[in-house]
Amino acid sequence: MSAVTTEAVEAASPFEDTDAAPINPRTRQLLQDPILPMLIRLAWPNILIMLAQASTGLIETWWISHMGTAALAGMALVFPAVMLMQMMSAGGFGGAISSAIARALGSGRRGDADLLAWHAVVVNVAIGLLFSAVMLAYGRPIYRALGGEGAELEAALVYSNVVFGGMIFVWLMNGLASVVRGTGNMLFPALVTCVGAVLLVPVSPLLIFGFGPFPGLGIAGGGLALVLYSFGGTAVLAWYILSGRNLVRFGVGPLRWTMFRDIVRLGAAAAINSILTNVTIGIATALVATKAGVSAVAGFGTGARLEYLLIPVIFGIGAPMVALVGTNMGAGQKDRAMRIAFTGAAIAFVITEVIGLIAAIFPVAWISLFSEEHGAIDAGVAYLQIVGPVYGFFGGGLALYFASQGAGQLLWPLACGFLRLAIAGLGGWLALEFTGSLNGLFFALAVGLVAYGGILFLAIRSGVWFRGKAA
C-alpha cells in the first residue's frame, strides 16, 4: 500500500493555509482497508436506509392515490421537482461537501475540514431559500408547462406550496448529513433517516386524512409530513455535530471565498447533472401528457417513480464512494481511487439491473398498487417493459458520477447527462411524431440510459479524471 507523502498532501490543498494534523484512524481505514469489503461495509446500511426513506414516498403516493386520479397526477407533476431538490441537496451539493471534507481529511487538513462544515451550512441555507422563493412565485407556470391543467394542476400547487415552503430544512438536513458522511461515518446519517422514515409512515396518513381531533389536510398533509420529517432530521444532525461526537465540527473563523468556491464549483456542476435527470423525466412527462392525457401521466409517473427509487439505492453506494475516492485522491492514491470507482459501479449495476428486470417481468404488480385505471396501467406497463431491462446502465453510470464527484471531476458525467437528455427528449419527440405511440418515446428513454452509463464507463476507464482541470 502506498504511503501518504508530504508532496501529495501539499498538492491536494486548494487553500492558501493548511492545518496539517495526524491522519485519524477512520481516515486511515479509507486509505488502506481492502476495497470490496470496506465498500460493502459502508454501503449496505446506507442502501437499506435509503430504501426505507424512498418507501415512505411510495407509501405517501399510495395514500394520496385514494384521493383520485387528479391528486395522483398532481403529485406526479411535483415529484420531479421534489426529487430534484433531494438530488441536488444530497447527491449534488451534498456530495461536493462530502468530497471537500474527505479530501481535506485525506491530506491532513483537519482545520480546513472544520471550516468547510460551517461554510456548507451557509451555502445550503442560501440555496434552500432561493428555490423556495422561485417555486412559491412561479409554481403555476412551471407545472402548466409540464402539462398540468384543471384539477391536477390545482392539486400540484397545493402540495408544492407546502413542500417548498419548508424546503430550507430539506437542504439543511442533507447538507449536515453530508458533513458527517465526509468523515466516512455512514451509519449515523442512515440511522437518522431510518428513524425519521418510520415516524413518517403513521404521520403522513394522519395529516392527509385526519383522525379524531386532527382535521384531514388532504394532499397538503402529505407535503407537511415531508417538511416535519426534514425539520426533525436537521435538528438531530445539528445536535450530533455541535456535541463534538462527529470527527468534523463547525469551524470558528471568518467566511472565506476559497472554501465557498470549493463547495460551489463542484456542487454547481453536480447540480446540473441532477437537473438533467429531472428535466429528462419532466420532458417525458410533458410528452406523455400531450399524447395520451392525464391517466397515462399517472401511469407513466408511477412507472418512472421506480427509476427514482433506484437513486436512493445508488446513493447508498455512492455516498461512501464520494468519501473513499475523495480521501484517496487527496492522499495521492489515484490507482486505488479508480479501483474503488469501478468496484462500486459494478455493485450498483447488478442491484439496479435485477430490480429493472423484475419490474419488466411483473409490471402490472407495481402499477396496480397505485392505480386501477386502464390507461394508467397500459402506460406504466409499457414503460417498465421497455426501460426496466436497461436500469443497470443507469445504476452503474450514476455510481460513476458519485465517484467522479469524489475525484473532483464532473465534466464527463455532465456530458453524458446532456447526451441522455438529447436522446430522450429530442429522440422521444421524434419517435412520437413518426410512430404515434408512447412505445417510441420509451425506447428513446431506454437508449438514453444505455448511452449515459456506457459512455461514462469508457471515458473514466480511459483516464479522463487525470487530464486537464477539475470540472
UniProtKB/TrEMBL annotation:
Q: Where does it primarily localize?
A: membrane
What membrane topology is annotated for this entry? Multi-pass membrane protein
Q: Which GO terms describe its cellular component?
A: plasma membrane
List where in the cell it is found: Cell inner membrane
Residues spanning the signal sequence: none
- Superkingdom of origin: Bacteria
Q: Which Pfam families match?
A: MatE
Question: What CDD domains does this protein map onto?
Answer: MATE_like_3 (cd13148)
Q: Which GO terms fall under molecular function for this chain's record?
A: antiporter activity; xenobiotic transmembrane transporter activity
Keywords assigned: Cell membrane, Membrane, Transmembrane, Transmembrane helix, Transport
| Keyword Transport assigned | yes
InterPro entries, per this entry? MATE_fam, MdtK-like, Membrane_Transporter-Flippase
Q: Which residues cross the membrane?
A: 42-64, 70-94, 115-138, 158-180, 187-211, 217-242, 263-288, 308-328, 340-369, 381-403, 410-432, 438-460
Name this polypeptide is given = MATE efflux family protein
Biological source species: Neorhizobium galegae bv. orientalis str. HAMBI 540
